[in-house]
Amino acid sequence: MSFNSFGHLFRVTTFGESHGPAIGGVIDGCPPGLRFRLDEVQGALDRRRPGQSRFTTQRREPDEVKILSGTLAEEDGTLISTGAPIALLIENVDQRSKDYSAIAESYRPGHADYAYDVKYGLRDHRGGGRSSARETAVRVAAGAIAAKVLPGVTITGALVQMGEIAIDRANWDSAEIGRNPFFCPDAQAAARMADYLDAIRKSGSSVGAVIEVVAEGVPPGLGAPIYGKLDADLAGALMSINAVKGVEIGEGFASAALTGEDNADEMRMGNDGRPVFLANHAGGVLGGISTGQPVVARFAVKPTSSILTPRRTVTRHGEDAEIVTKGRHDPCVGIRAVPVGEAMVACVLADHFLRQRGQVGTPPAWPFPR
Amino acid sequence: MSFNSFGHLFRVTTFGESHGPAIGGVIDGCPPGLRFRLDEVQGALDRRRPGQSRFTTQRREPDEVKILSGTLAEEDGTLISTGAPIALLIENVDQRSKDYSAIAESYRPGHADYAYDVKYGLRDHRGGGRSSARETAVRVAAGAIAAKVLPGVTITGALVQMGEIAIDRANWDSAEIGRNPFFCPDAQAAARMADYLDAIRKSGSSVGAVIEVVAEGVPPGLGAPIYGKLDADLAGALMSINAVKGVEIGEGFASAALTGEDNADEMRMGNDGRPVFLANHAGGVLGGISTGQPVVARFAVKPTSSILTPRRTVTRHGEDAEIVTKGRHDPCVGIRAVPVGEAMVACVLADHFLRQRGQVGTPPAWPFPR
Amino acid sequence: MSFNSFGHLFRVTTFGESHGPAIGGVIDGCPPGLRFRLDEVQGALDRRRPGQSRFTTQRREPDEVKILSGTLAEEDGTLISTGAPIALLIENVDQRSKDYSAIAESYRPGHADYAYDVKYGLRDHRGGGRSSARETAVRVAAGAIAAKVLPGVTITGALVQMGEIAIDRANWDSAEIGRNPFFCPDAQAAARMADYLDAIRKSGSSVGAVIEVVAEGVPPGLGAPIYGKLDADLAGALMSINAVKGVEIGEGFASAALTGEDNADEMRMGNDGRPVFLANHAGGVLGGISTGQPVVARFAVKPTSSILTPRRTVTRHGEDAEIVTKGRHDPCVGIRAVPVGEAMVACVLADHFLRQRGQVGTPPAWPFPR
Amino acid sequence: MSFNSFGHLFRVTTFGESHGPAIGGVIDGCPPGLRFRLDEVQGALDRRRPGQSRFTTQRREPDEVKILSGTLAEEDGTLISTGAPIALLIENVDQRSKDYSAIAESYRPGHADYAYDVKYGLRDHRGGGRSSARETAVRVAAGAIAAKVLPGVTITGALVQMGEIAIDRANWDSAEIGRNPFFCPDAQAAARMADYLDAIRKSGSSVGAVIEVVAEGVPPGLGAPIYGKLDADLAGALMSINAVKGVEIGEGFASAALTGEDNADEMRMGNDGRPVFLANHAGGVLGGISTGQPVVARFAVKPTSSILTPRRTVTRHGEDAEIVTKGRHDPCVGIRAVPVGEAMVACVLADHFLRQRGQVGTPPAWPFPR
């Protein structure tokens, strides 16, 4: 029971507002003996950091992460987790609170403002307070540590749709993801996205996106059949990212139109004594449990609700009003959601890896003898 | 931390296998003083019950629910919750275990069989054991009680797509949902679905579906901004239903192609002193918190993986094989997922209703004075 | 967050009232592949069962346990856990509800009656409803299965004080525990207890007791330094048993009068390469973590509050009254708390065993090389 | 499931080591709209702060607390909780790590050193790392905020025994608690304690203590009948404080020697329409639920295990050794445990206050009409 924690055995608790002194979090349950470097965590944060291209918010946050506890440092700076909680702290530097004065009284349509006021009876309106996507920086840092729990697992996120522009999967080149400011695996689509988003940005508008995250090397057996389903936990995790409105695993909504024959991922024995799946409609999860195939998840991010076009709204005093949201906002918040999606997948997998080790231990080796 | 529990303050734990003596569950945290009748719970179960039309499995389970604890009975049979855990028991009657002997050795593609064996090192293969959709009967019973926690809330599920047949939303008639065996709100689509599914069923195939659940009358303020998001919990809950591969809230994946202008749900003050939203792209949830608009969720169900067409697979001993799944199965398991989806939404809302009451209590009345 | 569950990875949820149709529970998180026989569980229940001597309540409950799920049966009846939840059911047979009619209106001093009414606004007064010690039967059954999670661990409870009669530790003979109806390890004290309790019983009075539970063979490393302390979880678990008012670990309250020198459990290396502790003031737990020494816990049980002597009280309508509690009650409820205490210790240890395996895995072998 | 969190709806997570850069914590679930001042939190910390008399460790920590999130500040400095997580940070200032170099290799008897090494396979030995009592500063800060959740509740801790010196309850004067460095309510006993502890301190030894915490004004109805028992949660909470070896509620272990007649807390109706209890053997809790009487808890603290007298031990490499613990330690750590005990009681009560409000809401007013 918690409002700001995520996970069970690998458990992340975050705190902090967009315009307070700092954001941060506590990772509870990180196994002892993991080795990592602070610059690995910082590197993950840098991928999500705002202000790196004209396509993201011009807020300039260095997002420098400090680790306050839970590690021992070797002479070369390598950190070793001790099993104690790892506290992460990121100081806020570039808060321009006056930018937000206009929205103190009126609710931004599509934003959490009204819901907050009705729920809590008060609200820190600066920068969206707790509902700001700034909190996701902590998720990214936690994800970098979660990845250390998962030996042999590679997690890659990619933007597969921006507004009306979808990638052509025939063009997929993983190396391309790091070459454009959109995490887009299709170079041609990325070029079109640049023009498209320039126009969106200049008009003060915004647009949505679809992100796909693939985890390769996930061992079979993670998850549980009923309420600890791996895919259910992934769905909850990805839907908890700001502005996400949909989540798919594997074939997703397209599976509704398939027949059982088409959707069956047939199997054959491989040369290495392991089964080979002949397709992956399931997205690596069957009955809530990983199969050893790549885990494939997609999520849809709605357009940023902070736009320059005037919208009709009401004030917190119950009066009709119009609102224009100035501030500094991402024209496509889905771009920076790519590393966040990767981090959430890493955290879910790390949690299930530890849960599996705890509950089941080491089951008999498959295949079973006759 | 739990593998078979769902929810926090309204917490449901289920048990039982498809072919064991019984399935059941425990509702922990049901507030005292709720009044309901056993036949209300039974009525909800009857909607999900197999064998009611030629379009669902011919397994004949009466699904008669017993309440073993947590209630006092008045003379007229009305039950009153006491605040103690409510235990539900449904005995299994029509298990024909020998139907399943063929699948003891070979894994059904698209089914949880292989993942189970690798995870646990053993498996109750009869009827799918714990991964059988039979467990969802308990969810439906729990949902009927969850609905009692939510005064003034109406939850309605409907099948909006079966295989390649989608409804025409212009034809939506809620009264129609109860008149056809598909929970379909479009009478014309329902007629086409009947023919379509007859063909699927006769060929031993199966097909997927999309279900939409709408909750009206949900008070604003349910949910939390970060990890207790109402929509994230709904996504996890719906994805935990057997065979679900995708979840959407409000505009869902379509929001990726929208601009911020299009996606903004503008507001005006209504005559009753409450705000009126001029659209509901958000599906009733902003920033993880309910807004008072109808909560709209959709989920995609893949085709049943148990089909009569031979599929390539492997055995638990690591040999190539072919498999045909006989047994008695639903040609479109999405149909019976409709009441299950309603139940999961009811459980999530009940949980958040109690959480909101606990954490926040009664906030100041909106709108706030100047 | 739960009101009727206990434990995390090995998680027990119970339900049922003293005078309802049945009591029972669900064990969630039992690892797969554990082998046990139903008569082992039944045997544990038989030790706690009422009506076995004149010193316990004359209610005649067979306490026959059924397992409804979570196991496969071999041909010889051996059960194998599958990793699915294990549901336990014990039907109530000998409820004489009319015995309790006198206490429907007046509160028994020292009993939960008043607190229930104020908390819930209603109450099932028959047999104490949910506050009856009858619920502990389910704990005992769960403890028998928990013990299977713990290879090489032996858990023994003993009554070390009844009313004013304390055992002489010089007389401790573990074999004696099973030979008298008090689970008393001192034969001479047991003889005196028999006379003493006969007098208490005949006068309609009741008396308290102290129970000690020792777990031998507990591996070092179970527990955690702060809020998952093994001793804190034991304290909470034992205090959750009906009528318990105090818990001690190791030296307990006597440690307050000791100096650091006296209380130090010095260490030497043993011949087997493991450290030998020269004393066990700590009761097997240091810093919240097991040391490998025997875990020693004690708890105090107050006298049964249901007595024949009239006591002053008030009614649920706010009037002064006198009350005599007839019914059938244990003159020393502490006796039957012995197997319950053992069960709670087993459940806590099983939970921490799985948590340690999950969070830490296999640490480097101690002692560490230079 | 968590190793460093405490509570459910009012949930505290702590982090930090004795000799790292900082300790701190996150309070998740604090209701919105609570008003408090930073100096109230600081004042609570100052009571626990080391180095204030010759009877506590001479480590000089200012223990200045910062609040990083979860509050809005009014112009006069009053903080208002927003419902978002409240992050607390206390920087470590006076770490003299070289003091601890001697204990890097050898285990201190009675300390967590050995258990840590065996559990985690590595250990931050400086200042005890995570097992240091320094973590309790965060508990005290959290307790100060928890107290704000509980209108009308007064929580008072007192030292009632130090080593062989117990107070005379006839001398109890609550005003005296703040007048001596021991939190002792008996002025005469306090004078003797000063001489006694001087001798202990000068000899490099240490001694244990017993602390009593009384909460007055606790509303009836907090807690739950089975595993959410108020007294079980108090027992777990108090046993989680460093060096605690025993916990009692109300009559505690003395109840074992009482008869049912003596132990019954009889009731009469008071003039204000509420029941008056004629005694409080129960310590304010019956059946796990608060009765409205003062909640009375006691806990025993063992002597500090860090002493100057050489003790036999082993090294982490498995060799026999002798050890003397220099560093700066409390001769009676029980003294500073007094405000920690108060804080834990405040946190448990706050958690149950919110849980009661969530699960039960507002039950019908007692007494009930005929």
From TrEMBL, chains A, B, C, D:
GO cellular component assignments: cytosol
Cofactor note: Reduced FMN (FMNH(2)).
Pathway named in the protein's UniProt entry: Metabolic intermediate biosynthesis; chorismate biosynthesis; chorismate from D-erythrose 4-phosphate and phosphoenolpyruvate: step 7/7
Catalytic reaction(s) noted: 5-O-(1-carboxyvinyl)-3-phosphoshikimate = chorismate + phosphate
Function: This reaction introduces a second double bond into the aromatic ring system.
The protein's name: Chorismate synthase
GO annotation, biological process: amino acid biosynthetic process; aromatic amino acid family biosynthetic process; chorismate biosynthetic process
Residues involved in FMN binding: R130, S131, S132, N242, A243, G287, K302, P303, T304, S305, S306, R328
Binding site for NADP(+): R48, R54
